[in-house]
Amino acid sequence: MSGMIEAGSAHIAVLAAMHKTVFPHEAWDEVGFTTLLRQPGVHGLIHEGGGFLLLRSVLDEAEILTIGVLEKRRGIGTSLLHEGLRRLRLAGVRTLYLEVATDNAPALALYEKQGFVVTGRRKAYYDDGGDALTMRLELAAPLQAGQSGTGE
Questions:
Q1: The pTM is what?
Q2: ∠ CA 115-117-122 to the nearest 5 degrees?
Q3: What is the distance between the alpha carbons of residues 126 and 79, in angstroms, rounded to a whole number?
Q4: Which of 40, 79, 92, 116 could form a disulfide with 111 if both were Cys (CB 3.0 to 4.6 A apart)?
Q5: Beta carbons of 64 and 98 less than 8 angstroms apart
Q6: pLDDT class for 152, splitting at 50, 70, 90?
Q7: Annotated catalytic sites, by residue?
Q8: Which residues contact 75 (CB under 8 A, 6 or more apart)?
Q9: Cα–Cα distance for residue pair 15/55, rounded to 1 Å
């Protein structure tokens, strides 16, 4: 897990600043991150290379609330997603959901490479009127402590 930090209340300002950089038109503020991180089942990761991931899990299902990277094509998104998937499997999560903008080609490529499948479309989902695709990933059997979950 080198380069990863468990996001907590001490990281609210950092998360909000990174989110604003990645999503300037739909940025979440410090109040939003504070509220989210106080909710049961919400966990966040910060990649020291410049990225973040927030997940919410309930029983054996989870969703990606947000994921973003400051610099594309450095493997940060893949690294965050792999660590998130590893943690979800350890927690017994079987299915992961997300929404992604239809015009976000890098994110779509990342999710498809990991095995996510499109399950639907949400018209005018985003504040700018853009559509979102809903996607799902069926996770493999839960990991035992000590397994990496990256296939390595």
A1: 0.85
A2: 140
A3: 26
A4: 116
A5: yes
A6: very low
A7: 99, 111
A8: none
A9: 13
